[in-house]
Specification:
The structure is a single chain. The protein is mostly helical. It has one domain. Helix content is 71%, strand content 0%.
Amino acid sequence: MTTSAADHDDPTKATITDVATLIATGAGAGLSPVAPGTAGSIVATALLVFLLDMPVIWHWWGWFGLTALAVWSSKRAGAAWGVIDHPAIVIDEFAGLWLAALIPMSVLTFDLPSMPLLIGSLLLFRLFDIVKPWPVSALERGVPGAWGVVLDDVAAGAMAGGCMTAVMMAIAAS
C-alpha cells in the first residue's frame, strides 16, 4: 500500500501514541476505515460476552469506571488529534453499549438469553447513536468537550436499554 506525504502530515489523522489514544480507539477498533463506531460497538459486544456472568453490581461499578475512563481518554485523544469528537474515538460506544445491555440486566428479574440481549442491545444502540433523536442530539451539540463525546452515547445506550427491556419483557410474556 502506498501512502502519501499528506497521510503523515495530517494532524487530524488518528494514531495510537499513548495509553489514552489506545483506550479511546477501543484498542484500535476505532481506526477501522469503515464505520469505526460500529466496529467499536462490535468489539464492545464481543467483550461483553465474557462478562455477562458477573454480578450486576460489578457491571455497574465497571460501567462507571469505564465511563470515567472514556471521558479522560476522549479528552486526551481529541486534543492529540485536534478534533474533539474524532471518529476514531469509540470508547464512548463501549460505555453506551454496555449501558444498553446493563439496563435490562438490572431491571428484569428473569434469566435473560445472552445472545438476543447482546445482539438486540447492539442493534438498538447503533440505531439511536446513528439517528441521534432527542436527547442524544442535544447532548452531542450542547455539552462541550469530552463530556459531550461520551454523554450522547450514554443517552443512546439508555434509550436502547429501555427499549431492550420492553422487548425482553414482550418475549418473556409470549
